[in-house]
Amino acid sequence: MAEGYKLIYSGRDERGRNGVGIIIDKKLKGGVYGVERKSDRIMCVKLEIGRGSTTIVCGYAPQAGCEEVEKSIFWRQLDRVIMEIPENERVIVGADFNGHVGRRRCGEERAHGRWSVGERNGEGERIMEHAMAYDLTIVNTCFRKGEGHLITCKRSWVKHQERGHQRKRKRRGTERDKRKERSKEDVGFDRV
């Protein structure tokens, strides 16, 4: 890749859709010690930054028009990926979740900053549920930006903020343990 950057890519499905990738800065590429391609929608890159390990999770959630089963498979797989990361590692989730979290609601202060636009949709509910279950922060809601920078999808009838970058805090035991148990019970997870 140009100027010494490193591109790590996870292919696409048999229909020619999907695919995710991460571009690693030339200063950090020597610290990469692991790449896990989980599917055509999720991959992880493990690297040493400073004195600790960081896992970057890259994802591309199914769009609003996709089947509900495809969406459920994605979120169960993302749950498993997050649960596999050791508690002492930093986690960054950079993804296009194809949802809109809208304005913050009471009780969401740790997961959602105060800067956002519009109303939450169904996919946004899933994003918030995931962020709160793993004590992640949706970072792009934590900084004030001009409306032109908030909007990532703009059509004549709708504007919304789709992309989410999440950062792991510390473990939130009870909800995470419940989700872990539920994911063990799910049948057909590996049929991606």
From TrEMBL:
Residues 161-192 are annotated as: Disordered. InterPro entries: Endo/exonu/phosph_ase_sf, Swc5/CFDP1/2. This is Craniofacial development protein 2-like. Residues 174-192 have a biased composition (Basic and acidic residues). It comes from the Eukaryota. PANTHER family: BUCENTAUR RELATED, ENDONUCLEASE_EXONUCLEASE_PHOSPHATASE DOMAIN-CONTAINING PROTEIN. SUPFAM superfamilies: DNase I-like (SSF56219). Transmembrane segments: none annotated.
